[in-house]
Amino acid sequence: MFLRVQGLSKRYVAGGRWHRRVHIAAASEIDFEIGKGKTLALLGASGSGKSTVARCVTRLERPDAGNIWLGGLHIAQLSHRDLASVRVSIQMIFQDAVTSINPRFSAAEAIEEPLRIQGKNRSERRSIAEGVMKEVALSSAWLDRSVMEFSGGQRQRLAIARALTTQPKLLVLDEAFSGLDLSTQAQIANLLLDLQAAHALTYLLISHDLMLVSNMADVIAVMSHGRIVEQGSAQQIVTDPKHEETRKLLSSTQAALQLARRAGASA
Amino acid sequence: MRTKTAILIAALGALHLALLCAGFIAPYDPVAQNREVPYAPPTRLHLHDASGWHLRPFVFRWTLADDGYLEDKSHSFPVHLWTTGSSYKFLGLFETTRHLFSVDSPATVALFGTDGFGRDEFSRVLYGGQISVAAGIAATLIALLAGALFGVIAGYYGNWTDQSLMAGTELFLSLPWLYFLLGVRAFLPLHVSPVRTFFLLTCVIGLIGWARPARLVRGIVLSSRTRNYVLAARSFGASDLHVIREHILPEVLGVLMTQATVLVPRYIAAEVTLSFFGLGVNEPVASWGNMLSTLQQYSVLVSYAWLLAPAGALVITSVIYALLADVVQSRLEFQQPGN
Amino acid sequence: MRYLGRTLLRAILLLAGVSILCFLFTEMAPGKFFDELRLNPQVSPETIANLRSRYGLDQPLAVRYGRWVRSAAHADFGYSLAYNAPVAPLLWGRARNTLLLTTTAMLLTWLISLPLGVWLAARRGRMLDQAFSIASSFLVSIPEVVIAVALLAIVVRWRLLPLSAGPLNTEGVSPWTHVQDLATRMVLPVTILVFVESAIIVRHVRASVLEVLETPFVQAARSFGIGQARVLFRHVLPAAASPAISLFGFSLAGLVSGSLLTEVVCGWPGLGPLILEATLSRDFYLVIGGIMLSALFMVGGNLIADVMLLAADPRIRTGALDAH
User: Fold this and answer.
1) Closest chain A residue by Cα to residue B229
2) Which residue from A minimizes the CA distance to C5?
């Protein structure tokens, strides 16, 4: 097991000085594990707590309770200083590529940022940047272009390239496909599958789109109101959903699937 | 857009350069009085006389008659370029006596006329501009530095630091600006050396104005902190310093630049207003403000219109800055990460 | 209701803060204020003794401040040494003159600017609008000093108005002459103020109306075939009201403090020249009184604007705009 999460819980406190404080249990008693080189998808409607889990795993937030093991290392309550060495192994791809890369940067500057933080010199950074650009199927001639000149799908590739520079072991994809059109989604999905095969990457995929997820994930965990309500192999979940939430998600995509099939049949 | 910016920056640069080289461009010393030609109208430059057209302009001497000044056409005085005259310190660095142009005495070439003491208005406008514009720029720098400092602290540390600093800005923003400026000025020593006055003035004007830049900078810092690209940077191990340097500072600088183009003319006007009231730079040092205050006497205002020259200079300066502010503002909006 | 309470509390705290700031600044005055007093031949020793006991003039800052606050609660704002009279009546008398000027100017400004701004927004891009944009950009960037002096120069040069300075003469003249006299004296300063303020306000009104004109809901209304005038009055203006109300609050806030320059240049016997003289003669309590009065108006004006906004904009009441 490469990533193991047990009993993860996180609470948020809402309300400021003038309103009453409300405690929201964003995630409670989360248990799952992902094998090396495999993909687990956290599925759920918005507000179900999936992003919270993702942020806890990447330690952008500290969980209130529970354990997280990454390749045998217990990271749930590590201090920031100790986390530094672990950070390079986990990378996150955000939902909106437009906001996850500083638009003032050039492609090279954006991709090389993790390397700058590590203190690598210019030529090293450049050669690594060229390497990852190739891996995400972007021309390295575009390295000096401003990030704003890239399309949404290309920017997501840049984000992936940036994530690859640190040679990570775990990639957390937080709604990484929303905001992209269907054909671009498919391209990115294929790219990610290729990269997974090439580098034995482990993926934690966060999404609300069952159709997409069923193509990529080995295991699916369905979340609702901060808890995992159903978990199983992708095959199982899609063909034999047990929980109501799963069925709801399935039916909304099934209609879409039917439409797609009909369109495909008549083409 | 590009050409417009370029023209404006060039115009601004030319203006500032002219003021910096006031000593060179001005034919006379700003405090040199010439009691023979008080309130003289602008010297007329002639190119044509009885013997035909000349390339080099020349002037006649003003003589005081019963009902005003008359040109004494008996003797013409050509305008010389690159001449020697009274000594001054170029850029405050080295002494020299070179001037751009002048005429031989006893004629005078007062392009903007003279004031009640016979002092050359043109020279005084240049030297006065040095004071007024420098005061505006210095005060702006103080306001922006103080504002940026507090804004970054408030935005970055949040909680109580933020709350108290923002309460402070609200306090300063609800102050009646001019009244408060007067009040503070009242309690500082009234009659000190011009250098100290200048220093005092810029500090007071600048320190009162820290509130708005602080708010703007705080806003930038707050919104930048939560941006996904900052989160991303943290997720690959960025330190606070890295985040500030690479993601927050560039945006802060952008905002500060727009603020600068707005504040400089405002603070120049503040200095002019204070000096106009006699609370700023005092005689005999020239500042656009104290030059305009003589116009409060109606007789002077009516008869000697050329004494409005500092007002004209102030208008030109303000307008160029305002146009530049518009351009910078729209440029910056275009570059926002949100777009 | 809570919102109102909050805003009121904030206003009071702000005023307290301003007064503290003022007193802090007096600490910067070199030399003991008291010694200057004693050197002044116009002030008798009895007055000094009186002042000392009443206002604690030789006491530390905190005591002085405390005494001042206590007196202020009784509407006693200290004593002016230059005028040898209590501050409050002095201030109030002059403030009335200032308010006369500024309220007239404000009324005229808004009467002109609101319709003009709306009209220009409706005619966006056409010749008149463009001409106005250029003119107003120009006007807005010119400092008030220059406008005041320039208009004064025009009036004086071409003898457009009879000019007199000093207190308004009320003795021995019929009310009608008095009003006439007042009106003639008011023309120049009011014109200057209207010039300066309307340039700013017209631009803001125009901008906010334009912003509303381009929103989807107005475009939708238009596409339903609703007439131009109806769209304007029932849809656009209410939506554009919020920024206009804020602006109105700013106008209110500046009622006392916005006309200092104009009053001095035109010789209008208002608060401005009084405070200026007080500054020049280091008349301690008078200066502070003046600042407090104008601060009162500033804070009050903003308060009124907040209340009006609360009534006008339903989004504030529901807290929908709170981004905590």
Assistant:
1) A100
2) A18
Domains, chain C, in order of start with CATH, read: 2-86 (no CATH), 90-322 (1.10.3720.10)
Q: Which chains touch C (3 or more CB pairs under 8 A)?
A: A, B
Residue A14 domain-assigned? Answer: no
A20 domain-assigned: no
Supply the range of the domain harboring residue A166. Answer: 34-62+83-266
- pLDDT tens-digit profile, chain C (324 residues): 677 788 888 888 888 888 888 877 776 665 445 555 566 666 667 766 766 666 656 667 777 777 777 777 777 777 776 777 788 888 888 888 899 999 999 999 999 988 888 888 877 778 888 888 888 888 888 888 888 888 888 888 777 777 665 566 666 667 777 788 888 888 889 999 998 888 888 888 888 888 887 777 777 777 777 666 676 677 777 777 778 888 888 888 888 888 888 998 888 888 888 888 888 777 778 888 888 888 888 888 888 888 887 777 666 666 555 443
H or E element in which residue C298 lies? helix C284-312
Taking the model in full, what pTM does it have? 0.80
Q: What is the pLDDT of residues A220-234, one digit of tens each?
A: 888 888 888 888 888
**Residue closest to B83 by CA, chosen among B105, B61, B98:** B98
State the total domains in chain A. 1
CA-nearest of B47, B46, B37 to B69 is B37
* Within a domain: A73: no
Give the whole-angstrom CA distance, residue B194 versus residue B211. Answer: 28
Q: State the smallest CA–CA distance between residue B156 and chain A in angstroms.
A: 17
Q: With an 8 Å Cβ cutoff, is A156 touching chain B?
A: no
Query: B307 CA to chain C: closest CA distance, Å?
Result: 11
Convert the pLDDT of each residue in A82-125 to its tens digit. 777 788 888 888 887 788 898 889 999 999 999 898 888 889 89
Q: Is B334's Cβ below 8 Å from some Cβ in C?
A: no
* Interchain contact, B178 vs C157, CB within 8 Å: no
> Quick one: CA torsion of C284, B189, C21, B221, rounded to 10 degrees?
160
The CATH number given to whatever domain includes residue A103 is 3.40.50.300
- Could you tell me if B265 lies within 8 Å of chain C, comparing CB atoms? yes
Q: Does residue A235 belong to any structural domain of this protein?
A: yes
B232, A92: Cβ pair inside 8 Å? yes
Q: Is B207 left (phi over 0), alpha (psi -120 to 50) or beta?
A: alpha
Q: Compute the distance between CA of residue B262 and CA of residue C299 in angstroms, rounded to an integer.
A: 24
**C324 contacts A16? CB cut-off 8 A:** yes
Q: How far is A212 from chain C (nearest CA, A)?
A: 34
Q: Do A104 and B239 touch (CB under 8 A)?
A: no
ipTM value: 0.82
